Each structure stands twice: as C-alpha cells, then as structure tokens.
Amino acid sequence: MTPTDWLPARLRAIRALTPDIRLLEIAPSAPGTPAPPGSHLGVAVMIGERPDTRSYSLLDSGADGLYRIAVKRLPDSRGGSAYMHGLEPGARLSISGPRNHFGLTLGRPGYLLVAGGIGITPLHAMALALHQAGAPFRLLYAARTRQDLALADDLRARIGDRLETFLDEDHRRIDLHAAIAALAPGGEAYVCGPFGMMEAARRAWAEAGRPAQGLRFETFGTGGRHATEPFTVRIPRLSKEIVVSRNQTMLEALEAAGVGMIHDCRRGECGLCTVKILEAEGTVDHRDVFFSEAQKATNAQLCTCVSRVVGGGITIDTADRAV
C-alpha cells in the first residue's frame, strides 16, 4: 500500500489503559505486511463537520493482521482525540499506511529508549523488537502518576527489568546525563515525550559529545514553551490576514483560508510545511524537532504544523503563488 492509499477498516476492540488513554484494535479490510517499529498509522477523522487526518504510532508490528494504537484524550485537543474516544467497537474507519519517520536501526552496540507520557507508544514497539532481537537496551518511562503508566505492566511482563519507571508523584526524574553516559559507545537513543523532555535530551546528548545522528526523536506536537492561545497570521503578498484559533494549527488555518501548502508528517519532523518569517510581533513558540536550536533562535522560519505565536501575531511568506 502506498502512502497515499486509503483502506477500509473496522474498529475491532477498545480497552481502557488509563482514565484518559484507550487502546484501539483496528482490523484492516486487507491484511498488510508487518510494520517495522516506529511506524504510525493514518486515520481519517471528523473535526466537527470537517474531515481531517490524525497519525498514531503502532504499538507492535501488527503481525497478526491487527493494528494497535493508544489514544490519549487531551484537554486541549483540536478534536482528533475526542473523535477517536467517541468511537465504539464495530465502527468503520479509513486508514493509511503504515508509514515510518522514526525508524529503528538494528545492529547497534546499545540502545536507550526514553518515553514521557503517551510518548510510550512508538517505544513500546521498539522495546519489543529489541527484546526479540536480543539487543542490549534500556527503556526509561516517565509519567505524572502511577495510573498514567499506560502499558507499563504489559512491558514489564515482556522485557523485565529493562524497563524503569519514573513518577512525578514519587519525585523521581530521569537523569538523562547518567543514562547517556551508561550507553555503550556507538549506541543510539530514541526519545518520545513532551517538548521539554526532548529539549533536555538534545542538550544532554550534545554535552556528552555524542554524534547528532545517534539521537532520534518522535514528537506529538501537543506542547511548547508557552500556553496555546489564538494568534494572527498576515501574508502581504496574498493580501491575507488569518486568525489561528486555540484549537487549530497554523497549517490547518492556512489550508482553510485557501493558501496552498506542502506538508507530510504534521508533527514537526519533516520540515515540508515551513514558511519564511518576515516579522514576528509576538514570541514564536517553536515546537518542532526539525530545526536546530541555533536555527530556531534566528526566527527565520517555522514549521506551521506545530509551532505557534504568543503575545501577538506573525507576518510570513509562503511558497504559494496563487492570487
């Protein structure tokens, strides 16, 4: 199945993992080949009356013909998680993929997996694959409370003491510097979690003198340095002024206003949806993992799929040449 293909599917079963996280088993109409760890599934959703797409990481390879995803209902959701939580077993779905922007490279001397909250989803699949391959690895899993540890019991039963959990309620935090220092030379780290965790991992990795290509990220684009608020985007060349609401991404607002955009991941990873910043009247909250910290500091470009502005607006130019 090519990335642009859509396939009918049925929601086979639902199970609550935590009060706000559900595991969904999806049966495609035609079984596909097993998906490599780090893969995600596209799911067609309805946001109000508007069709849209959301991506969810696969919890395993789907070798039994079923795709398993875990969806957290977010209080500041743009509508995708609310839609998914409203589904019942037997619901008809349209899916695409699986696709992979977060591939696991086998054969390294060691692996460090770091998950925060719902970021456990792609690392669950990686941990199972590494365990099956007999590879040396550790999985460090942080959450606010014990009840937020979705999938921890399942993982512990499968991978044993390679899993270590860290809870805010116990005042335990992951020591990234120590974890990286314990990783074998030439080893790789894979991180998925809140923005702050990914930034801290990036800093610790660089301070350890590790090669940049050895650190891989997956982001779900739900948080940044600042609280989410509405802002205005101006495009002088197109004579457009567009308001981006609190529960809408800048990319979605541009598309709704008829601005031609190129995009792929919608998670701040691929960089295809970037635009040129002409002027920032507010503070640009860069929430992507595509640009380096030095590039973000210049405020020359931003990823419209996840990044936002607070305390004002922004003036941009795009690749769109339509009048």
UniProtKB/TrEMBL annotation:
SUPFAM superfamilies: 2Fe-2S ferredoxin-like (SSF54292), Ferredoxin reductase-like, C-terminal NADP-linked domain (SSF52343), Riboflavin synthase domain-like (SSF63380)
Protein name: Phenoxybenzoate dioxygenase subunit beta
Coiled-coil region(s): none
Domain FAD-binding FR-type: 4-105
Gene Ontology molecular function: 2 iron, 2 sulfur cluster binding; dioxygenase activity
Entry keyword set: Dioxygenase, Oxidoreductase
PROSITE patterns, A to Z: 2FE2S_FER_1, 2FE2S_FER_2, FAD_FR
Gene: pobB
Domain of life where this protein originates: Bacteria
Pfam families (alphabetical): Fer2, NAD_binding_1
Gene3D superfamilies per the UniProt record, alphabetical: 3.10.20.30, Nucleotide-binding domain of ferredoxin-NADP reductase (FNR) module (3.40.50.80), Translation factors (2.40.30.10)
Organism of provenance: Methylobacterium frigidaeris
Residue intervals of the 2Fe-2S ferredoxin-type domain: 229-322
